[in-house]
Amino acid sequence: MAALIEENAASAEVLAVYEDIKATRKTDWVNNFWKALANHPPTLKRIWETIKQVMAPGALDPLTKELVYIAVSVTNNCNYCIASHTASARAKGMTEEQLAELLAVIGVANETNRLAVGYGVPVDERFLAAE
């Protein structure tokens, strides 16, 4: 397990990212994911800048982005990401009913994906046609 770089032990470069995280998220703390990435400041900065850009409001609303993040995290078996993005989705209004339905969709999608891969199902021509 990587060491967690706390604010009192962080370099100026890391502290600048931590401050941006806190300001952007309107919080007074930095979670462990970022503290672990701080072991390599260039990665910390790159991933933070990417997350900040991708998760910002856009064509998809912030809750939808969190739901997608949960789905990918469940599929990738990332317990940390499941917990953090579930908390974030709840803060953005996700209900327990929505979470349950999301988990059902994730489960069936993973099952049908594996079946399609296992059977080598060819993609229907109709699905490939541009409309």
UniProtKB/TrEMBL annotation:
The residues forming the signal peptide are none
Where would I find the Carboxymuconolactone decarboxylase-like domain in this sequence?
42-115
Q: Which Pfam families match?
A: CMD (PF02627)
Its recorded name reads Carboxymuconolactone decarboxylase family protein
Q: Which Gene3D superfamilies match?
A: AhpD-like
